[in-house]
Amino acid sequence: MKDTLKHRGKRNQLVDLIASKGIKSPEVLAAIRAVPRHLFMDSGFEDHAYQDKAFPIASGQTISQPYTVAYQTELLEIKPGDKILEIGTGSGYQTAVLLQLKAKVFTVERQLNLFKKTKLFFDRMGYRPKRFVFGDGYKGMPEEAPFDGILVTAGAPRIPKALMSQLKIGGRLVIPVGEDHQTMMLITRSSEKEFERRECGSFRFVPLLEDKN
Ligand code: SAH
Questions:
Q1: Pairing of strands 131-134, 104-109
Q2: Which of 92, 161, 200, 213 has the greatest CB tally within 10 Å of its CB?
Q3: Three-class secondary structure assignment of 151-184
Q4: What CATH number belongs to 54-203?
Q5: Which of 105, 209, 213 has most ligand 1 atoms within 8 Å of CB, for mutation?
Q6: pLDDT surpassing 80 at residue 211
Q7: Ligand 1 pocket check: which of 39, 61, 132, 203 to mutate, most ligand atoms within 8 Å of Cβ?
Q8: What's this model's pTM, rounded to 2 decimal places?
């Protein structure tokens, strides 16, 4: 599959739509405009790529809704060179948006099939996260901490302590918390021991799973 003029036209319309839904950051909107979302989905489904909807990918998982990707990314307030940890690589679409913002990206996926598929895809497309690890995101990536930002792209029943402890002072954790539907939480580390919490609306994600199966 290629990125054609038609795809780019549809992407421009998608960007207009998510801007009308309240995404303001010019950098985030430019990143959504740049990343060819249809290439992250199985061929045959590309007609769905530029609707503002989540969509099924391999292993019973989903590629997040573009608005949600933009919203979570905006909350991170990424500056070029920031170290960002993503939990739940999935299709790699969110990863590519982070890379487009010139972040140094560390990303974790716990489903082996999806990990292998997305790894091949990144290699083929030339997407280069600093590290792409098969493992359990509840643990974060302690060997690479601290991070400027941590982004969880699955619904977490609780906020993993490990992720809070891997934030820099001033760093931000964006995490949807809840079982059936989730409240988007923005947690900012204001000092070694203090964290500020802000609730940022209601969303629905696939679950952040605790044990491997
Ligand atoms: N960012 C992805 C969204 C994928 S959906 C995208 O843009 O496509 C959430 C992903 O989180 C799924 O791929 C799921 O397998 C993964 N996941 C669930 N529990 C996890 C855990 N404990 N650690 C790491 N990844 C997890």
A1: parallel
A2: 92
A3: EECCEECCCCHHHHHCEEEEEEEEEEECCCCEEE
A4: 3.40.50.150
A5: 209
A6: no
A7: 61
A8: 0.97
